[in-house]
Amino acid sequence: IQEVQKQSDQGDVVHLRGKVGKQVPLLNGVAYELQDDTGKIWVLLRGGTIPQTGSEVAIKGRLRYQSITINQQEQGMVY
């Protein structure tokens, strides 16, 4: 996960494996945190089966980046 966050470009298709952490319901889906030994990344799921917290999953997805500026400093995140 750490390598993907640092070296991949927005729109790249990636394959990740990890444990499902926190989940947040959204109007048109759910977001959940995927964790491995190197870090965490948020996954946005629109449709499909929502994985159970604590379960191990393998996913294929497209990277996105959300810019968040706080006190004129970039605090954005890859998801």
Please characterize this protein's 3D structure:
By secondary structure, the chain is mainly beta. It has one helix and eight strands, in the order αββββββββ. It has one helix at 2-7, and strands at residues 13-26, 29-36, 39-45, 56-62, 65-66, 69-70, 73-74, 77-78. The longest helix has 6 residues, at 2-7.
By DSSP, the count of extended strands is 8
Helix and strand content put the structural class at mainly beta
Can you tell me the overall shape?
globular
Biggest β-sheet description: 4 strands, antiparallel
**Unreliable spans:** none
- Tell me the β content: over 45%
Order of strands across the main sheet: 3-2-1-4
Assembly state? single chain
What is the rounded distance between the termini? Answer: 10 Å
Q: Report the helical percentage.
A: under 10%
Please summarize what this structure is.
The protein contains one helix and eight strands; from the N terminus they run αββββββββ. By secondary structure, it is mostly beta strands.
Topology:
Blueprint (H helix, E strand, L loop, with lengths): L1 H6 L5 E14 L2 E8 L2 E7 L10 E7 L2 E2 L2 E2 L2 E2 L2 E2 L1
Antiparallel strand pairs: 1-2, 1-4, 2-3, 5-8, 6-7
Structural descriptors:
79 residues; mainly beta; two-stranded antiparallel sheet; globular
